[in-house]
């Protein structure tokens, strides 16, 4: 939308010029067209309507000037309506103060002759206006009114307030840089969805993006890398584009963006990474590292050993940087990173080891805590507070720090139990750089699998917390990391509609009945996408994607097709046979290739669906796991290992791959009856850059009918330039082997070794289909 900092006189002149000689166009908004996201806490539609036209008058309390200015500008540019001012008593639209409402809360009452918006504060008034905006026709979002419109909207009552005080979105501009105007567009999107914090990731190994006057080489040198990795980090051999890349924001641009955000009730939290993710800064000022050696700005993704050395010179630098940052960003919080900080340099640094000894620190983890506490004391002295990723818990948490829990929920749980504020942003539910569909046509992403439904089902409050401890869960946010996101269009694609789901999680709260709530949410998402389209947002539309699932029933195998949205027709074919209309699950008795499409009002919508099913002896068996898969990689459930469907060869995040983090795995497969077994084969994913390691040893035990135990040796096969490791057990060729049960023992790879991505962390094991023939 056009910036709305315009005077009433300017708007009136614009409206007069626009509408000279034109008749008004009347638009009726029906009850069925209303699609509000996030869902209000209380919403009631009434009979009758209100007519919004050129004669509609407005009064707003002075403290709600920002909300008033937005509404005036939105209606002027979108509908050609310039609202005349009126007194508190006579106004048709009244925005007034009600201090009895909760923080950021509001009520909206639309009757036949008046729109009454009450709010507890400026934020509540602004969000009430955003609701009014969502009640208006989507074409107003184009903000290009050529004729005057009169708009008839339904009467209703809304009472609303947020579930969480912190409702955020993150955006990484270090891996790929994005211009000022796009940052503003991103902020506008947050405001529409009542999200009030923008976490701006400004520095990392691959580029420093904020001007610091005292250290000019941060922008002349550290803001640019000599080339960039092409394709995925795991591809071999790695290739680079040989093109210099970079950019940064001048302080004047930062100030402009901060002022812009404040108009949208969005507070910006800048992130300055430390002590790790510092290679770009150290490339400009080598003396900040432990070795003093020159290093380049990183040209590929991952974690690097370069780390700020905790010496006086480094702390002076960081305090100087933060001083300039704190002037630019008036909010209460500064994010200082603290994540993924390898300690190799510190372990081999004489100064660091002396610091550990002199301060009675236990180890390098304690040194990180020392580092963070030094920075926190400085930030606190300036009247600000710090936020850090959950690694800041290691070695002891800084006294006033807020923890951003990303490696699951455990970090947040630990911090809340210590009575620290927590922002939940686990990879399992909040990393929007993950794939959102398992279709092969999806654009390249870092990995993972985070469909819309999983975001919507996220509950930021873990069940492990008591009611008192749960009060420390400040909120949650979605994250957009940009290693594999290069364009504005792709940012939109990865963010939407998952941002809609996250906004509802943090504003409305998580429903206790996901299976009932999710279809209702989608019924609002579908028309809301038209609003995003009018806003020129390049959203991903997976509402018509087909989901295929194998179902076992009384020894028979069936295949089920479904779509997320209701009321759509599916047509399918098996092994290129005649196309049929889907009316329910159908039987699978042989190897099958299934193709299908979705139809809406007789027209094909969405992408083509294709699935291959390998019919083998394990399909009717029962599987038992000694440990469940990690929640982030469990969408297919244990049945995914015996459903005849192989996961992707190029990505590990779809529903067919199950992930286990550091667990030794034992799999028991029970057959309904004595079954002849000739071979057992398994597939593993191997992507060391993503902390994923195929096992080095697997044991198979075939329990024969007579009670004998038959051990077997595996044959490991890995194709060059492939992430797939096939493991095959060929059983005896001399005699037939019958069994009612087999057992597989799969030890975890263990701890990731030094020099590898994620060194010191537990390795992941990803397993796919187990084929028994």
Question: Which structural class matches the secondary elements?
Answer: alpha/beta
Number of domains: 3
Instruction: Note the total helix count.
Output: 18
CATH superfamily of the largest domain: Glycosidases
**CATH fold label of the largest domain:** TIM Barrel
What fraction strand? Answer: 25-35%
N-end to C-end Cα span:
61 Å
Helix content: 10-25%
Number of strands: 39
Largest beta sheet: strand ordering: 8-9-16-17-18-19-20-21
The CATH class of the largest domain: Alpha Beta
Shape: globular
Q: Architecture of the largest domain, according to CATH? A: Alpha-Beta Barrel
Rg calculated over all Cα atoms: 29 Å
Mean pLDDT, all residues? 93
Low-confidence stretches: 5-22
**Biggest beta-sheet profile:** 8 strands, parallel, barrel
Topology:
Elements: H1 8-19, E1 25-28, E2 42-52, E3 58-60, H2 65-79, E4 93-97, E5 106-110, E6 115-119, H3 122-135, E7 149-160, E8 166-172, H4 180-192, E9 197-201, E10 203-204, E11 207-208, H5 217-220, E12 224-225, E13 229-230, E14 239-240, E15 245-246, H6 251-263, E16 267-274, H7 279-284, H8 312-328, E17 333-337, H9 344-347, H10 350-358, H11 364-381, E18 385-389, E19 402-405, H12 410-417, E20 422-424, H13 427-430, H14 452-456, H15 467-470, E21 473-478, H16 488-495, H17 498-507, H18 514-534, E22 547-553, E23 556-562, E24 569-574, E25 580-581, E26 586-587, E27 592-600, E28 603-613, E29 622-625, E30 658-661, E31 665-676, E32 679-685, E33 699-704, E34 709-712, E35 715-718, E36 724-730, E37 738-746, E38 764-767, E39 771-772
Parallel strand pairs: 1-7, 3-4, 4-6, 8-9, 8-21, 9-16, 16-17, 17-18, 18-19, 19-20, 20-21
Antiparallel strand pairs: 2-7, 5-6, 5-7, 10-11, 12-15, 13-14, 22-23, 23-26, 24-25, 24-27, 27-28, 29-31, 30-38, 31-37, 32-36, 32-38, 32-39, 33-34, 33-37, 35-36
Helix pairs in contact: 1-2, 2-3, 4-6, 8-11
